[in-house]
Each structure stands twice: as structure tokens, then as C-alpha cells.
Design a protein that fits this description.
Elements: H1 19-28, E1 42-47, H2 51-62, E2 67-71, H3 77-81, H4 84-102, H5 117-131, H6 137-142, E3 145-149, E4 152-156, E5 159-162, E6 165-174, E7 178-180, H7 188-191, E8 208-212, H8 216-228, E9 231-235, H9 247-259, E10 263-265, E11 269-276, E12 279-286, E13 289-295, E14 297-300, E15 304-306, E16 320-321, E17 325-326, E18 339-341, H10 352-368, E19 381-383, E20 388-393, H11 396-401, E21 406-412, H12 417-422, E22 428-434, E23 440-447, H13 450-453, H14 455-462, H15 467-471, H16 483-494, H17 498-508
Parallel strand pairs: 1-2, 1-6, 2-3, 6-18, 8-9, 8-14, 9-10
Antiparallel strand pairs: 4-5, 5-6, 7-15, 11-12, 12-13, 16-17, 19-20, 20-23, 21-22, 22-23
């Protein structure tokens, strides 16, 4: 049974419309919700109920500001409904299946693995529904926020309209997020491509899955579905996967996907799609010839598009770009000085944790005349493949573009006793430091749990702690995290010049 939303509904059906999805809907877009009577003037009106909007509204209301929150679809945004929460539930199940299959390498014999895909998806929906109350309309109403469900449109420089009501504001924040970019080739619409917004509605495992796009979403889900038992082909337009990450990290992920049975095709240009019954065909160019791939489902993971079209931004004097989104300065203020923006709608850092801290910055700058700058935020990110790839700060390529001279220090996981004991030696810890001194300008970790491990580097960069501090910090043995101490040791060892070595020899003689 699926929920039959009107054709104009700004979000896909909650399919299957089971108990879990009904509880999700009741929390984040209740059918019986009645919008409140607008107050004469709000200190802050927030458009968009994803992470950036929810944090902005909660913080502002908690400080006593008259606050309104407008959401046209599902409160919680992508993260709760079609992003972080459902995807990591699937990845956890896929990781468990892989661990059982790989147990023989540790001397543990296990029976053949059987993945109950419908049960995996039911578990995901139950977990999502259980987390939903944290982002619910009722909770934010209880925090003192006026919650309006409907599509917001600017009606002037200091006014928006939603569901027939006018909301006047002193300040406003645009936090409408983004959506999956469409595949712009003939037949794509007719073929029925899935995106992150619809892939989590699957209830049966597709025997053959094509994934178009080799970024984080494409790599994560390609590996997960392969581990569940799908025959997966990943088509990446560029020369390598994860093009924004360290090239060595990208290659490690490619090899991991190959081991899990994913066919990876790089330099693949999709030309057209067609569909006959339940069979999809993808025509693409690769290796100087045109090929055809047949599959049962197609997942498009081609990046993100900002949600700006329905806002009527020119009416409020707000500049925007259909590709980059709302144009903001370093304080996240738009070209209308009364309106700010936060999250995916205005930033290349399209991560939940980035949206969270952008929201905190916006509240300070909008309501308290703060002067906080987005460029000063240290924002790590992680791709949750196995192994994970986490990064913070500058890559070697970015440092070169900025004309910054750096030294690079690397500790392979094969040098970490805990990784050798666990049989997980594929990966590395890498730090880029300023050529003079020990200031850390960037770090990359490729390992199981890299998303947790990168936080030590992010903490050091945020608070000005260098490699010497990492080297002088005692880490438990044996742990994976002691790689940070080893990096500090390698930095300290490199400080001993040939002259100092000769002097030390004379001293000890």
C-alpha cells in the first residue's frame, strides 16, 4: 500500500505506506497540521526544514527570538528522509554481510550469507521513523517555533507568503537545500531512474543495478547493493572515482568495489536510456566505442541541484545561480542585507554537519550583528565506503593552486599494529603541514572508521594544534588512532638536521 499524494506534492510518495512510514509522515508532515496565525512581525523566518533550517530555528527560538519555520515537504530534509539516516542503515547491514563473508580470513568459518533485503529495508524504515520525532513539527512547536507547512514565496524584501498567509520578518534565512541532479540524456525520464529520493523505497533487491556517478553517494550505494547480492555496474564520467579526494584514496576505493563484485567503468559518457517492460538499457561511450548495458534499476548519483526555483528570489532582491544556488558573502548574507542563507542551497560543502555549523553562524550574524566568517570553519567530510575515506582541510592539489608550499607525511595502515592484527591494512593516514613549522593544513584518512578518526585532525586544525602536539599526545596501544602520534613522531624526526646529528655524536662520544 502506498500513500497517494497529490501530483503537486513537492516530495515523492512514502512508499511502501506501512506503519513505519505512516509514523514518519505523522511526525514530519502531519496530514492534520494546522498552520498557526502569523505574528505581526518575526525576528527570524526560516525557509526550509532540513538540518540548516531546523538548527537555525531551534537556536533562534531558544534565545527568545520570534521565529517561524516554513517547510514544503518533509521536516528533517534529505538527512533524515532520503540521505544520511536511511543510507547508513543500509550500509550497516551491508557491512555486516561483508564481515561474515570475510571471517574466514581470520580463521572463523561461517555458513553462507543470505541477505533478507526486505527485512533490511524494513529495519531502515523503522529506524528512520524512530529518529523522526527529533525533527517533528510538534517538537519545534513545543520549542516556541511557529511551524508552517507549505511552499514559501518572497512577496517583497521583508515578507514571504505561505499557504495564503503573509509572514513579515526583520531577518530571514533561506535553507531550502538541494535535490538530486537530473540525468540530461534522451530517455532518462521515461526509463524511470531512481535517485537518493526514491532508492530507499525499494522493497525487492534488483538483480542488476546500474549506478551512474562515482561520487560519494554512487560509491557507497554501489558497494552496499553489491554486498546485498545485486550485480552492480558503476559508470563514472571522469577518469577516477571520488575525484575530489586524494588520488591514492580513490584507487583504494576502486579496488575495494572491484573485490565486492562491482564492475567499475571510468571515462564513461552516457548517451541515452530506454526501457522495455522492466528492463532498462543504457547506451554509453567508453574505451573509444559505444556499449549497451542492460539492468533492472538505474540509480543516478550525478551531484546536487539547489532548490531555488519556487522562491521568487528576484522579488526580494536576492541574486542566485541555478547551479550554485543562492549567492552569499563570507558571513552568509545574500544581496538582500536582511536575508541570509545556510546549507546546501548556498554552499559547496553539502554535508549535514556543515549545515549545522553554518546555521549557528547565521544566527549570530543575523540576530546579533556578529561577524563570523564561513571561511574560518574547519569542515571534515567522509565517504562511508569500506574502507571509509575522510578528509579535512587542503588536498595537495588545492595547496598547489593556492601557491602554498607543504610537506606531506604518510603512515600506511600496514605500519599500525592494530590494523595488521585485524587484517585491515589497506589504507593510510596522511597529513599535509606547512613547509615551515608544524601547522596542519590538511589531512586524509583511508581506513575503517575514518569518519571518526579524522576528528582528531579537525580538532587540531580548529584550535591551532600542530604535529608536535599530536606527537606528544599519548594514544592507547594498540589502536588505529595512534597513527596520529606516529605522524607527530615522523615530523619530529625530520627536524633533526645533519648538523644536529653530528653535534649529538660528539656529545655522546
Amino acid at each position: 500500500m502506498s500513500r497517494a499524494f497529490p501530483e503537486s506534492a513537492p516530495f515523492p510518495p512514502l512508499d511502501p505506506y506501512d506503519d513505519a512510514n505512516q509514523r514518519l509522515e505523522a511526525a514530519v508532515h502531519p496530514r492534520d497540521w494546522t498552520n498557526p496565525r502569523p505574528q505581526p512581525r518575526y525576528h527570524l523566518v526560516v525557509i526550509g526544514g532540513g538540518t540548516a533550517g531546523l538548527v537555525t530555528a531551534a537556536v533562534a527560538a531558544g534565545l527568545g527570538a520570534r521565529t517561524a519555520l516554513v517547510e514544503r515537504a518533509l521536516l528533517g530534509g534529505d538527512c533524515l528522509n532520503v540521505g544520511c539516516v536511511p543510507s547508513k542503515a543500509l550500509l550497516s547491514a551491508a557491512h555486516a554481510a561483508a564481515q561474515i563473508r570475510e571471517a574466514a580470513d581470520l580463521g572463523v568459518q561461517a555458513d553462507a550469507v543470505r541477505v533478507d533485503f526486505p527485512a533490511v529495508m524494513r529495519r531502515m524504515r523503522e529506524l528512520r521513523a524512530g529518529i523522526a520525532p527529533h525533527d517533528s513539527a510538534a517538537r519545534f512547536q513545543g520549542l516556541g517555533v511557529d511551524v508552517f507547512l507549505g511552499t514559501a514565496t518572497f512577496a517583497g524584501a521583508d515578507r514571504i507568503e505561505v499557504a495564503g498567509a503573509g509572514l513579515h520578518f526583520q531577518k530571514a534565512v533561506i535553507a531550502t537545500g538541494g535535490r538530486a541532479a537530473a540525468l540530461d540524456v534522451p530517455g532518462a525520464r521515461e526509463a524511470g531512474c531512481r535517485t537518493n529520493e526514491t532508492v530507499f523505497s525499494l522493497t525487492e533487491l534488483p538483480p542488476r543495478l546500474a549506478v551512474i556517478g562515482g561520487g560519494p553517494i554512487g560509491c557507497e550505494l554501489a558497494q552496499a547493493f553489491a554486498r546485498f547480492g545485486s550485480r552492480v555496474t558503476l559508470l563514472q564520467r571522469g577518469a577516477r572515482l571520488l575525484p575530489r579526494d586524494d588520488p591514492e584514496a580513490s584507487e583504494i576505493v576502486r579496488q575495494a568495489l572491484l573485490r565486492d563484485g562491482v564492475e567499475v567503468v571510468t571515462d564513461a559518457a552516457v548517451r541515452r536510456l530506454d526501457r522495455t517492460g522492466n528492463v532498462r538499457r543504457i547506451e554509453y561511450d567508453a574505451a573509444t566505442r559505444t556499449r549497451t548495458l542492460e539492468c533492472d534499476e538505474v540509480l543516478c548519483a550525478m551531484g546536487r541541484t539547489p532548490n531555488v526555483e519556487s522562491l521568487d528570489l528576484p522579488t526580494a532582491g536576492i541574486e542566485f545561480d541555478l547551479r550554485r544556488g543562492v549567492i552569499v558573502d563570507d558571513r552568509l548574507r545574500t544581496t538582500n542585507p536582511s536575508v541570509y542563507a545556510a546549507g546546501d542551497v548556498c554552499s559547496e560543502a553539502k554535508f549535514t554537519h556543515a549545515a549545522d555549523f553554518m546555521a549557528r553562524l547565521v544566527v549570530r550574524n543575523a540576530l546579533f550583528r556578529g561577524r563570523g566568517r564561513f571561511s574560518r570553519l574547519v569542515i571534515p567530510h567522509c565517504t562511508y565506503t569500506s574502507p571509509e575515506v575522510a578528509h579535512v582541510g587542503l588536498t595537495a592539489e588545492a595547496a598547489e593552486r593556492q601557491g602554498l608550499s607543504v610537506r606531506t607525511l604518510t603512515v600506511p595502515l600496514a605500519d599500525i599494529d592494530r590494523c595488521r592484527l585485524a587484517g585491515r591494512t589497506e589504507g593510510f593516514f596522511r597529513v599535509r603541514a606547512a613547509a615551515r613549522g608544524d601547522r596542519i593544513v590538511g589531512a586524509t584518512v583511508v581506513a575503517d572508521g575514518a569518519g571518526d578518526l579524522i576528528s582528531e585532525a579537525a580538532l587540531a586544525m580548529t584550535h591551532g594544534l600542530g604535529l608536535k602536539a599530536l606527537g606528544s599526545t599519548i594514544h592507547p596501544y594498540p589502536t588505529v588512532g595512534e597513527a596520529w602520534r606516529k605522524l607527530g613522531d615522523r615530523y619530529n624526526a625530520g627536524r633533526v638536521s645533519p648538523l644536529v646529528r653530528r653535534l649529538l655524536k660528539l656529545w655522546f662520544r
